[in-house]
Design a protein that fits this description.
It is a single chain. The protein has eight helices and 13 strands. It is of the alpha+beta class. The mean pLDDT is 94.
């Protein structure tokens, strides 16, 4: 359960690592970058692995939902195509069966593909720790390369995507020097809203891989 995972994580006092998809964690383990005392697999916890569309059109997406799961959802990709574009660029088809929005965010890389798209979408993330739950805007999560503003005993639970206004759309694009390279040299996510005369009334751009954290414009 989520409460059990939080208790285990807190009891480890910083020596544990969370396994959401594992696409970053396993690489770090095999390269010797980290040597955790315990690994906590959260992939089958209900709250972290569900997709819910609310009556108002907003979405709640579990932090460990894979790219494949989200791509198969009947309406998420139609509502937030830019977020899905970004998540679907993380790794190969096999990796897509594991890679998650929560794992990509909590890895803390400024080049993480999904992070600019989440920020442009003005998504928020629900976080739970031993002292209860709280909510952060995704733009406030990263604090530097490989680090976040989550406490060492907090777990990202799910993302909230707001109701999208009529005339709105989002997109994501990254630049890599060759197709074999998976990490963006620069990436950009955009969210735009047009009025009935097709005049821009709201525009948000987020840039990845060009600073210690995503640059929010």
């Amino acid at each position: 359960t989520l409460d059990e995972a939080v208790s285990l994580y807190a009891a480890a006092a910083g020596s544990a690592r969370i396994l959401a998809g594992g696409t970053d964690l396993l690489v770090q383990l095999r390269s010797g970058m980290i040597n955790p005392g315990i690994i906590i697999d959260i992939k089958k916890i209900k709250e972290l692995n569900s997709i819910e569309q609310k009556a108002d059109g907003s979405f709640v997406v579990g932090a460990s939902v894979s790219g494949t799961q989200l791509a198969k959802h009947s309406s998420f990709g139609k509502t937030w195509p830019g977020v899905l574009e970004a998540l679907n660029l993380i790794g190969s088809t096999q990796v897509q069966g594991r890679a998650s929005l929560g794992g990509n965010l909590c890895n803390g890389s400024p080049a993480g593909d999904s992070i600019p798209a989440l920020i442009a979408a003005e998504a928020t993330v629900n976080i739970q720790g031993p002292n209860g739950s709280r909510q952060l805007a995704v733009k406030d999560v990263l604090s530097g390369p490989g680090s976040t503003n989550l406490s060492q005993d907090e777990i990202a639970v799910n993302f909230i995507f707001p109701t999208r206004q009529l005339g709105s759309g989002d997109a994501y694009l990254r630049m890599i020097p060759r197709t074999e390279m998976d990490i963006a040299v620069v990436s950009a996510a955009c969210f735009i809203t047009l009025d009935k005369n097709e005049i821009i009334k709201y525009l948000k751009i987020s840039l990845g891989a060009v600073g210690p954290t995503v640059i929010d414009i």
